[in-house]
Amino acid sequence: MSKGLPFDWLNTIARKRTREIKDAGLCRKFELVERSSPGRYFFDSSGSPVISFCSNDYLSLSAHSKVIAAAREALVTNGVGTCGSRNIGGTNVDHVELEKCLASVHRRESALLFSSGFIANFAAVVSLIEEFGRAQEGITFVSDRLNHASLIDGMRLGAGLAAGSGSPGFVEVKVFEHNDVASCKLAIEEAKFGRKVVIAESIYSMEGDRSPIAELASISRSAGALFLLNEVHAVGVFGRGGGLAVELPSAHGPDLVVGSLSKAFGSFGGYLAGDAEVIDWLRLVSRFFIFTSTLPVSVARAARAAVEIACEEDDLRHELFERVSYLRRSLAAQGILALGDSHIVPVVVSSVAWPHERAIGTCEALSRSLLSSGFYATTMKYPTVPLGMPRLRLSVTPLHEKREIDEFVSALSNFWGALGIERVSA
Length: 426
Description:
This protein is α/β, with parallel strands linked by helices. Helices cover 42% and strands 14% of the residues. The strands form 3 sheets. Strands 4-10-9-8-7-5-6 form a 7-stranded mixed beta sheet, with helices on both faces. A 4-stranded mixed beta sheet has the order 1-2-3-12. A hairpin with a 4-residue loop joins strand 1 and strand 2. Helix 2 packs antiparallel against helix 10, helix 3 runs parallel beside helix 10 and helix 6 packs parallel to helix 7. The model has no long low-confidence stretch (mean pLDDT 91).
């Protein structure tokens, strides 16, 4: 872009904001790595092999031979992209069959595909706001403090849309303390509007902990509130593939489920699952579904193969849980505290006496040291996690060998000590 023109103000804003982020130590580094099969292997920018300990490919299904074969077959017969939205040549039998498969896995009547889990969350929240705003009815969202950015941004955008359509003040957002049922109940009781939506996640990605789903569902029902549950990090891993909610009686679960195909299912995309009438409504009104190209057929077919494998092969989950348990025990033996109780193993790199700049710098140094030793575990920092609480978000897969975990924990412990990070007593 030419400099000195009237629209150069954007360059000025971008330059100033970028400098502020860098000065605060919050600039994100996009490590150049090349993925290889099986999924735990990467190559760094110099071509050296590294083992990933931070992937969302929880079951290594992205590298499964049946999943790859399904994608390859579809590529040959259907080409690369659909080049159309669902109502303009973009609905293939693979999309329909995948939606049926996902509805069955979640024990729901219907499901609807989106281009990502982020967009699926957005679609659910914004569609609710638009509908009630159009009817001049208010809506209150009761949201866990640590909900994903897509849910938070959906509420923000939806509130702006409501205001822009002449319905200002028709959206209220009440935040309850993380996984605190009493706090959630109080927020519901204090809600300004009769229409209420409780929003939570079954597994919190940066905390590694589980949501009290049954309790949240119970207080939602008692208050006549809709319960929306984001299951993106639980699907495939729990409930024989259907996430944590399917382990509960249907009367104790959510009304609407958000899932992802790009994590344990090793593919790409997101979806919503719920009652048929609700899904039909979203299909007709969600701009995030209507005005976008649909998933490539190869992606849909690969995702369906992955979902079927995840549902049928319990051994994958057993092997994953064995390795997660071994990693957690190994970290504890070294005095390294791991948060949560799920397959996600966050390790916070901080100290109460450290300013956030030191915490970030130390965490990044730890990540770089691990990479130079052949292990990939990237730094998670604000705004993904609270300021001053950077962490390594660790994960393993069924393909990680015990020897590899031992070597990783040994390297991590050595660098942990060298960088002066506090250990905890066993």
